[in-house]
Structure formats: C-alpha cells, structure tokens
Amino acid sequence: MTALSELGLSSYEEKVYRTLLVTGTATATELSAASSVPKGRIYDVLNGLEARTLIQSQSTDPTRYIAVDPETAVDRLLAERTDELQREWNRYHELAATIHSNLPPTPAADGSVWLGTLGSDEMNTAIRQHVQTATRSVRGTVGPPYEHASWETLRSEFDAFFGAMQTDVSVSLIFSDEVLTTLPETFPELVKSKSVDISISVLPEIPVSFDIIDQTTTMIDIPNPRGGADRFGVVGVKETDIVAEFERQFQQLWSDAIPLIG
C-alpha cells in the first residue's frame, strides 16, 4: 500500500495523477496509454479525480487534463481522510452508546443487585432479561416508587415488561390506588392488546413493589433513600424460602384486592 492509497486514492487514480505530474496536460487517450489504465476505466478515474479537485479539465477539443500541485493534492486528501475518520469515530461512538444501553447493568459480586432509576435504559434491559425467563407465571405488585412516576416513565417499563413476555405466560398484577391515578384512560385497552393472559387487581396501598417469576425468582424494588419518587435499584433473590414467602404474601394480597382487569 502506497502513501497516496492510504490517503484514499485507488491504484488507477494514483497512476493517472502521477502520470499527469510527469506529462503536464494530457488527453484521456494519452493518459490511458501512459498510465496503463484501461480505456474503459479512464473516464471514470478522471471524473473521480476531478470531483475531488485533484485535477482540472481544460476546455479544449479533445478535453485535456492537468494535475493540481502535489502539496495542494495531499492537503485535500488529508482533509478528506480526516473527515472520513471523524465520521467513523462518531459512528463507533454512537454504536458503543447503543450497545451500552442494551446491556444489563453490572450486578454485584453475588449477582443479585442492579442499580438503576425508573425508566432508565439499564433497568428496561434488566426487566426484559428478567421477564423473558418466565415460562409459566409472573406475579407482581406495583406500588412505590411507581406511584410518583409519570406515565411516560411507566410506559417504557410497561413496554419492556410485556415486550419480553412469552405468550403462554399467566400474569397477575396488583396495583395501588395511587398508581392507577398515573395511568391513562386507554390503559385497559393497552393491557388487552397484549398477547398474554393478564389479570390486574387493586389495593388501597402497597408497601413494596416486587415480582415473582415461575415461583422460583423474585425481584424487589429498592426505593431511593432520598425519597420515594424514584427507584434506587432492584434486588433479585432465588433463595427458595424467601421466594416462597413472597409468593405467600402475594397470594394474601391478591385475595384482598379488588379485580380490575381479567
């Protein structure tokens, strides 16, 4: 690879440009013969060089071509290459940001705690990966910190939750009265549009938000210590006795709740 090719010239373009530096002005036919560039390619090569302002055409018959001076040509090629590399850097930077947003947050050493605020890309990814493990049932309570969130924030987690759900999974959710006030009037239609079996009931208050996947895993919301309007993170538990206790608590809450949907 030559220095000019590293700056972006093809082998034919380099041959024609170098030939013009030797011959001065020349026609396309003369350049084809002198540079060994095939006649079928010479005009494409000349047009490309002229478009990049590395050569100039003269209004003669036949048209003659002349090269710009080497210093100017190299400066122009360098500017082109710099712009190209900058675009590539921007593309990779955007790609890295996309990959970062689609990866789950790094768990603690015991693999049980994830930090993330309501509606964040990290938590939405964690929710999707958590829910997609369900094969039979998902049960959950929806209270703090969702009670103080906007529907726009809740919608992103709603979409993450149901978007990852397998169609043959049974879903049972208990909402607090305060969560209901944040939901749009179209919420029942949104729920019914999902291709899973969903039942929702309501209680006046819910002390903590959690879910249970297939009676084997529970994920518990950790409220932000500075206030209940956001989440600090979630903790995942697979300890059999703990999951069983959350299942028992859910069943008791479910028996006291008022059916809303399903």
From TrEMBL:
Residue ranges constituting the Transcription regulator TrmB N-terminal domain according to the UniProt record: 4-71
- For the DUF7436 domain, which residue ranges apply? 109-260
Which species expresses this protein natively?
Halogeometricum borinquense
Record-linked SUPFAM superfamilies: Winged helix' DNA-binding domain
Q: What is this protein called?
A: TrmB family transcriptional regulator
Q: Which InterPro entries does the protein's record reference?
A: DUF7436, TrmB-like, Tscrpt_reg_TrmB_N, WH-like_DNA-bd_sf, WH_DNA-bd_sf
